[in-house]
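Progress note, sequence design subtask.
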């Protein structure tokens, strides 16, 4: 009887003894994640997609080129109008009219009608094929949208992730999906009427992500390259960053659709695909930062999870990488 009882006691104590032994054993260090630079440098060619030249705007400023990828999935009418405006040379000779600190850089026709003041200007006429009136395109049906969902919690939407490389959000209850206002996002300026945007006046977010604008303005794309030329401009005046004097405005030399340029002049860019293990590893590296970082947050948010862009390699392993980052993600 004693022997059986003793064996039963030992059997009950065995798991506790095993746990104690495990606690006393030296901890095995977890394998640190590779750095973002290492992940991108070794990413196979198959995880990159070419940017469609029919969706690429090339805006030439005195300082350099700004390359903008359009988002026809989310704003088909606006994108079609922007293409028509670009093909017709509408943007050529216009200007950057507003630079508001930590918010946006905006460009368009300085002589266009101003509904705030009621003044009628002498706006540049639209070229053939461009429409003077478009429907608002704040969201699209969620069904069928190929979103790579982020597991991290977002305060602005119940579901967020990437769609075609763009930061996007969604609400399954309403069945809607939309593009988010992150650093580098490009939207179509509008007046008080929700359907008053045409794509003739555009802006790029140059500051902290103004997510409160989501579902209130049509987002038409994002800047892939050249953000430094938009974010480093002199700030405008007290009236929401609009320049007080005409001489303060920066002239736009040209805005062209890449597809309309000769082949040798077309920028060849690639965007990392987000439906790949490479993207998931990159996100994990951003969540579990090492090296210089003393504290690793174990978290990333939608606007910090910007999808990398690179110049398409012509040949050989040497590739110049450009990983867009929001101001919050910078050291």
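Output:
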């Amino acid at each position: 009887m004693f022997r059986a009882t003793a064996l039963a006691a030992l059997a009950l104590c065995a798991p506790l003894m095993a746990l104690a032994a495990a606690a006393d054993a030296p901890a095995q260090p977890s394998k640190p994640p590779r750095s973002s630079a290492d992940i991108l440098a070794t990413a196979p060619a198959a995880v990159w997609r070419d940017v469609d030249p029919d969706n690429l705007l090339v805006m030439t400023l005195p300082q350099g080129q700004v390359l903008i990828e359009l988002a026809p999935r989310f704003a088909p009418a606006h994108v079609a109008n922007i293409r028509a405006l670009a093909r017709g040379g509408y943007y050529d000779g216009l200007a950057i009219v507003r630079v508001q600190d930590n918010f946006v850089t905006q460009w368009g026709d300085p002589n266009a009608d101003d509904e705030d003041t009621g003044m009628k200007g002498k706006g540049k006429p639209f070229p053939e094929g461009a429409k003077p009136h478009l429907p608002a395109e704040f969201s699209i049906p969620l069904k069928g949208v190929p979103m790579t969902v982020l597991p991290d919690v977002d305060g602005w939407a119940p579901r967020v992730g990437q769609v075609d490389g763009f930061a996007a959000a969604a609400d399954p209850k309403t069945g809607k999906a939309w593009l988010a206002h992150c650093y580098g996002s490009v939207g179509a300026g509008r007046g008080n009427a929700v359907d008053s945007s045409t794509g003739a006046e555009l802006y790029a977010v140059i500051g902290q992500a103004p997510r409160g604008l989501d579902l209130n303005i049509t987002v038409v794309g994002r800047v892939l390259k050249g953000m430094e030329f938009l974010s480093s401009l002199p700030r405008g005046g007290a009236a929401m960053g609009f320049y007080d004097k005409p001489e303060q405005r920066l002239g736009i030399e040209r805005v062209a659709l890449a597809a309309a340029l000769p082949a040798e002049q077309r920028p060849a860019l690639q965007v990392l695909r987000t439906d790949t293990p490479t993207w998931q590893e990159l996100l994990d590296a951003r969540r579990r930062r090492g090296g210089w970082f003393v504290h690793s947050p174990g978290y990333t948010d939608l606007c910090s999870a910007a999808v990398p862009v690179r110049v398409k390699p012509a040949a050989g392993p040497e590739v110049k990488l450009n990983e867009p980052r929001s101001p919050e993600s910078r050291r």
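Confidence is low (pLDDT under 50) at residues 1-23, 317-321, 323-331. Work on this subtask will continue into the next period as scheduled.
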